[in-house]
UniProtKB/TrEMBL annotation:
Record keywords: 2Fe-2S, Iron, Iron-sulfur, Metal-binding, Oxidoreductase
Extent of the signal sequence: none
All copies of domain 2Fe-2S ferredoxin-type, residue ranges: 3-79
Protein species of origin: Tahibacter soli
GO molecular function: 2 iron, 2 sulfur cluster binding; metal ion binding; oxidoreductase activity
Name the UniProt record assigns to this protein: (2Fe-2S)-binding protein
Superkingdom of origin organism: Bacteria
Amino acid sequence: ATGPIELTINGEKFRHTGDPEMPLLWYLRDVLRLTGTKYGCGVGQCGACTVHLDGKATRACLIPMAALANQSITTIEGIAGPDDLHAVQQAWIEHDVPQCGYCQAGQIMAAVDLLKRKAQPSDADIASLTNLCRCGTYPRIRKAVKRAAE
Ligand code: FES
């Protein structure tokens, strides 16, 4: 039997005492009510549920809580302070990126991770992000990522 799972989310400590197989996405949305992280496909294909696990973009629908003991998660709610926006969020607003908006939190989390790995990402680097957008906002995503890199 496993005991409570302790983890850090957006800098706060939490203890999960429920089902250890619960995917992180459900814990974020249904238990903590952090609903900025979206449910798209539930099978790791779309990227709507992208969060950072120890700083790296990760699909929250695929990770069971049992795998997260003592790990640190950041969600879209945690990438900037309450009174400021992340440079990527600012660039998203400047380039009016979202259409329906549903995938955009995941897009932003993927972009923040990319910019940490590559300060000056190429078009190919940006195209390598596999977050899906049914509205086809990819050209604006590309512009906004480049703007955030400036
Ligand atoms: Fe997780 Fe689609 S909901 S990748």
